[in-house]
Amino acid sequence: MHSAGALNQRIALAAPSFTKDALGGLVRVDAPGVLAWAKVSHVGAGERFAEGAMQTRPELRVTIRWRAGIKLRDTLTWRSQAYEIIAEPVERSDRQTRRYLELLCVKRGAGAGT
Questions:
Q1: Residue 110 CB partners (closer than 8 Å, separation 6+)
Q2: pTM of the full structure
Q3: What tens digit of pLDDT does each residue of 12-29 get?
Q4: Dihedral sign of CA atoms 97, 64, 68, 57 in order
């Protein structure tokens, strides 16, 4: 599927946590992330109107070596920009039985539930 050279972008992965603010509301805080090598591909951008509602379209497809614990709504940072995973990670493998995760992401603040 991917040679080691294809995973040539450095990303940071983080799971969201929530803390209360001074008024008792919840504030999202992303803990420091785990660094990983990735292949990053642009696949689209922004939102579109379909089926009577605005729908978020993935902006990036990010492929990393398989690791446990990556979930929908986790955050990744690439080139100093935060992205949110908007679909369940998809597991893939290659002929050498190396396992990968494919992540569809949208820029934080672009309809991803910031």
A1: 46, 47, 56, 59
A2: 0.76
A3: 999 888 888 888 888 888
A4: negative
